[in-house]
C-alpha cells in the first residue's frame, strides 16, 4: 500500500509514497527496509506483529546483500543486447547454424538433411512472396530431387530474386498489417467504412519493398507528422495510429471513446515494439513485471494530445482549396461540440452525429486522414483510478510524457518529450527490446514458430527463448550489420543450413523434442488465409498480380453482407481483374469478414496480433471444396491443363498439375489413383451433360468436349485440395 515492490530491482530502489527509499545499494543503515526489519516497534517492524521477525542470520545476510550493492538478476528481455561475437568463433559455420548445432550437439542430435532443391524453392517462394514458384523454373529443376550444392550461386540468385519482386512487399506487409490492426472499417456495431484505409496498406507495401530501415519505419508510423518537413508519405504513415476502432454510434461519450483509442495506442505500442503487456497497467501496477500504473500514463501522455486531420495526399481536385475551407468549417463546429461535451453530456448525440458527418464528408471528397499534434489547449494527463477516465487522480498532479521509469528517462531539461522522441528511444541500439522483439517475429514467419514463444509478451509471463544467444546475436546483427534492413536479415536467415533443412518429422525426436524447439528440422504448416486463396487462383492463372490500389470486393454470400448494422453493407462484387486480386486487397469489414479469410484464421483486427491462430477444422475443407472462388479456380485450372502445349496425354497433364501445385511429379500409385478418378468422371459426365455443363461453369476449354472438360474439373478440384498444396514444407 505504501508503494513498496520487489517485482524488480528498479521498483525496489524508487522512492515510496512516504518519500523514503526501501533499499539504498551499499548503505544498509540508510535503507528503510533494513531499518524496519530491525525495529523494536511492532507497529513499524517488518514482518508486522503476528509474524516472526527475521533471525539474526537472515538480518546479517540482508545487510551484507545491501552493502554489496543489492545485486539483482535482470529479466532476460530487459538485459542489454550484447555485442556481436567475433566471426572466428563460428569456425567457418553460418552463425545461425553454429548456435543451433551447438545445442543439438549437447543432446547428441544431428540436424536434418538439407531439403531438395524443389522443396526449398517452393518454401522460399511462399515465405518471401506468398506465391507459388515460377512453373518454368520448377520444370527446370524437376529432373532432380537433390539439394542445391553448398554455397550455391543459383540458390543465392533465387533468394535475391524473391527479395526483389514487388510481391515480397505484399507478403511481408500482411504480417505487419496484422500487428497494425488494419481494416477498411471503423469497427463497433455501426462499422462505418474508411475509404482512405488502403493508402496506409499501400504505404506499408512500398516501405517494405524499398527496404526502408526498420528504425525509420518506426519513426514514420509513430511520429511521421513530427518529422522535419514531413512528406505526404510521412503523414500517411501515421495512419498506423488511426487503425484503432472508432465508435460513431449515437449516444456514445466522445471523450470516453477518444480515451479508448489512446489506450489502444499505448497497448499496441507495448505489444508491437516492446513485447510487453503494458496495457494492463491502465488500471494497476503490473503484477509480474516492473511496469507501474504511472508508466502506462507516461506513455499515454505521448498520445493524449494527438488529433486527426485530413488533406489531399496525392492528386488534388481542381476545387481543393474550396473543399479544404468547407472541411475546416465542419472541423471548427465539431471541435466546439467536443469541448462542450466534456462537461455536458446532453451534447453527446449531436457530437456523434457531427463526427459521422465529417467522416462521410472526408470519404466523399477523397480526403485522407492522418495524425497531428495539437499545439493549443493541450490536454493534461492524469492517472485514472482503476483506468476509469471519469475518475482522474487530479490531486496527484499531471503526468509528463516519458518512457517507463525502469528504463530511465528521455526528458531533457524542461522540454517535454514528443512522440518522435519516443520513437527514437524505441530504436536506439541501447534499447534492449525493439530489435529482440522484431527479430523474433521475423524468425517466426520463416520457421512457423518464434524463438521466444510469445512474441507480444517478453515479460515474466512469457517464455524464455529456446536459443537466447541466437536471439541476441540476430538482434545485434539486425541493428549493427544490417542497419535495421528487413531484407538483409531475411537473406541472412534463409541462407543458413538451419532454414534450409528438410521438414520431415523424425521418429527419433518425437519423444525428445515433439515441438521442434531445438530446430533439428524445419517446420511444416498450412499457409495463411490470404495465401490459400492466392495460390489457388495462381495455379488457375486467374490471379491478378497488380500491386497496390483500393480494396476490392470478391463475391460474398448475402448472409455475410447482411450481418452489418442496419443493412448498411451495400456490397457489390468486383468484376474483371479486381475479382481476382490478391487476398491482401480484399475489403476488410470488421463485422462482415470474408469467410474465406475468417475460416482460415484471419484475425478480426480489433486488437494487434503478431501470431495468427492455426486451426484445422472441417469448415476449411468444405470451403476449399465448395466455395465459389475455389471452385472457379478448379474450373480455370482444368482449362490451363487442357490447353497446355507441354501436356498432350492424361499422364502428362497429371504430371503438370502436380508440378504446378506441389513442385514435384506424382508417384506411380498416386498417378494411378488420379487416373482412376479421371476415368470414372469421364464415364459419369458422358451420361449427364447438364451436370457437366454446370460443373464447368463460365470457364470452358475451347474445342474440348463438355464431358472431358468436366472430368478434368473433377480432378483439379481434388488436386487443389491436397494438403500438400496448402502446406508450406
What does this structure look like?
- The chain is an all-alpha fold.
- The protein has 28 helices and 4 strands.
- The chain has helices spanning 9-13, 32-38, 56-67, 95-106, 117-129, 135-141, 153-164, 166-179, 197-209, 214-223, 232-237, 254-274, 293-303, 320-341, 348-364, 419-426, 434-447, 468-480, 486-494, 529-539, 558-561, 595-598, 618-626, 628-643, 650-662, 668-686, 689-696, 706-719; strands at residues 306-311, 368-373, 525-526, 727-728.
- The strands form 2 sheets. The chain has a two-stranded antiparallel sheet. A two-stranded antiparallel sheet has the order 3-4.
- α10 (214-223) runs antiparallel to α16 and α17 crosses α19 (486-494).
- The radius of gyration is 30 Å and the shape is globular.
Got a strand count? 4
Class based on secondary structure composition and strand pairing: mainly alpha
Query: What is the arithmetic mean of pLDDT?
Result: 94
Largest sheet: 2 strands, antiparallel
Q: In terms of quaternary structure, what is this? A: single chain
Helical segment tally?
A: 28
Label the overall shape: globular
Spans of at least 5 consecutive residues whose pLDDT stays below 50 are none
Span of the ends, CA to CA:
54 Å
Question: Biggest sheet, strands in spatial order?
Answer: 1-2
Which percent bin holds the helix content? 40-55%
Q: From the alpha-carbon coordinates, what is the Rg to the nearest angstrom?
A: 30 Å
State which percent range the strand residues make up: under 5%
Amino acid at each position: 500500500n505504501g508503494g513498496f515492490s520487489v517485482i524488480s530491482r528498479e521498483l525496489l530502489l524508487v522512492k515510496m509514497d512516504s518519500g523514503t527509499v526501501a533499499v539504498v545499494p551499499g548503505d544498509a543503515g540508510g535503507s528503510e527496509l533494513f531499518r524496519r526489519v530491525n525495529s523494536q516497534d511492532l507497529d513499524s517492524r517488518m514482518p508486522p506483529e503476528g509474524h516472526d521477525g527475521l533471525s539474526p542470520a537472515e538480518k546479517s545476510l540482508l545487510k551484507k546483500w545491501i552493502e554489496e550493492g543489492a545485486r539483482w538478476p535482470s529479466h532476460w528481455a530487459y538485459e542489454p543486447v550484447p555485442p556481436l561475437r567475433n566471426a572466428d568463433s563460428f569456425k567457418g559455420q553460418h552463425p545461425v547454424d553454429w548456435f543451433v548445432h551447438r545445442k543439438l550437439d549437447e543432446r547428441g542430435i544431428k540436424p536434418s538433411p538439407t531439403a531438395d532443391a524443389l522443396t526449398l524453392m517452393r518454401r522460399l517462394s511462399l515465405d518471401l512472396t506468398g506465391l507459388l514458384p515460377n512453373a518454368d523454373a520448377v520444370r527446370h529443376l524437376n529432373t532432380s530431387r537433390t539439394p542445391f550444392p553448398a554455397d550455391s550461386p543459383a540458390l543465392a540468385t533465387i533468394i535475391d530474386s524473391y527479395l526483389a519482386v514487388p510481391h515480397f512487399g505484399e507478403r511481408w506487409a500482411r504480417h505487419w498489417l496484422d500487428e497494425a490492426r488494419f481494416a477498411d472499417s471503423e469497427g463497433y456495431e455501426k462499422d462505418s467504412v474508411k475509404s482512405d484505409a488502403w493508402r496506409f496498406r499501400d504505404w506499408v507495401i512500398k516501405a517494405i519493398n524499398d527496404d526502408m530501415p526498420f528504425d525509420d519505419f518506426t519513426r514514420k508510423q509513430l511520429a511521421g507528422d513530427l518529422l522535419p518537413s514531413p512528406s505526404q508519405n510521412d503523414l500517411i504513415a501515421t495512419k498506423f495510429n488511426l487503425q484503432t476502432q472508432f465508435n460513431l454510434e449515437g449516444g456514445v461519450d466522445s471523450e470516453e471513446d477518444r480515451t479508448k483509442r489512446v489506450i489502444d495506442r499505448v497497448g499496441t505500442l507495448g505489444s508491437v515494439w516492446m513485447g510487453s503487456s503494458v496495457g494492463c497497467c491502465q488500471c494497476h501496477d503490473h503484477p509480474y513485471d516492473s511496469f507501474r500504473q504511472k508508466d502506462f500514463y507516461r506513455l499515454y501522455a505521448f498520445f493524449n494530445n494527438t488529433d486527426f486531420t485530413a488533406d489531399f495526399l496525392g492528386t488534388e481536385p481542381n476545387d481543393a482549396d474550396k473543399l479544404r475551407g468547407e472541411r475546416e468549417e465542419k472541423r471548427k463546429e465539431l471541435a466546439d461540440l467536443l469541448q462542450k461535451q466534456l462537461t455536458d453530456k446532453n451534447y453527446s448525440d449531436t457530437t456523434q452525429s457531427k463526427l459521422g458527418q465529417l467522416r462521410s464528408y472526408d470519404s466523399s471528397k477523397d480526403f485522407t486522414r492522418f495524425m497531428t499534434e495539437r499545439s493549443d489547449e493541450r490536454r493534461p494527463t492524469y492517472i485514472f483510478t482503476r483506468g476509469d477516465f471519469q475518475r482522474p487522480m487530479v490531486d496527484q498532479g499531471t503526468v509528463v510524457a516519458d518512457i517507463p521509469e525502469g528504463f530511465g528517462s528521455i526528458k531533457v531539461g524542461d522540454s517535454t518529450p514528443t512522440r518522435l522522441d519516443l520513437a527514437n528511444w524505441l530504436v536506439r541500439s541501447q534499447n534492449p527490446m525493439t530489435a529482440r522483439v522484431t527479430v523474433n517475429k521475423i524468425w517466426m514467419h520463416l520457421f512457423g514458430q518464434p524463438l521466444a514463444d510469445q512474441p507480444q509478451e517478453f515479460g515474466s509471463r512469457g517464455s524464455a527463448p529456446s536459443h537466447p544467444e541466437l536471439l541476441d546475436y540476430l538482434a545485434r546483427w539486425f541493428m549493427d550489420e544490417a542497419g535495421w534492413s528487413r531484407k538483409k536479415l531475411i537473406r541472412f536467415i534463409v541462407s543458413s543450413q538451419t532454414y534450409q533443412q528438410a521438414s520431415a518429422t523424425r521418429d527419433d525426436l518425437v519423444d525428445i523434442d515433439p515441438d521442434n524447439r531445438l530446430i533439428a528440422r524445419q517446420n511444416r504448416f498450412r499457409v495463411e488465409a490470404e495465401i490459400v486463396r492466392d495460390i489457388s487462383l495462381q495455379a488457375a492463372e486467374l490471379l491478378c498480380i497488380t500491386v497496390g490500389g483500393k480494396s476490392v470486393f470478391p463475391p460474398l454470400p448475402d448472409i455475410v453482407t447482411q450481418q452489418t448494422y442496419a443493412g448498411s453493407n451495400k456490397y457489390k462484387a468486383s468484376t474483371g481483374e479486381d475479382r481476382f486480386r490478391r487476398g491482401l486487397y480484399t475489403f476488410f469489414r470488421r463485422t462482415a469478414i470474408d469467410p474465406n479469410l475468417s475460416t482460415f484464421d484471419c484475425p478480426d483486427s480489433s486488437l494487434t496480433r503478431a501470431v495468427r491462430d492455426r486451426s484445422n477444422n472441417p469448415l476449411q475443407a468444405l470451403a476449399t471444396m465448395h466455395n465459389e472462388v475455389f471452385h472457379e479456380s478448379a474450373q480455370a485450372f482444368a482449362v490451363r491443363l487442357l490447353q497446355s502445349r507441354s501436356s498432350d496425354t492424361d499422364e502428362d497433364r497429371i504430371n503438370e498439375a502436380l508440378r504446378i501445385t506441389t513442385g514435384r511429379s506424382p508417384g506411380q500409385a498416386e498417378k494411378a489413383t488420379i487416373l482412376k478418378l479421371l476415368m470414372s468422371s469421364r464415364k459419369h459426365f458422358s451420361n449427364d451433360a447438364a451436370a457437366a455443363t454446370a460443373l464447368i461453369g463460365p470457364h470452358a476449354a475451347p474445342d474440348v468436349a463438355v464431358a472431358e472438360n468436366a472430368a478434368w474439373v473433377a480432378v483439379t478440384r481434388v488436386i487443389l485440395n491436397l494438403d500438400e498444396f496448402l502446406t508450406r514444407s
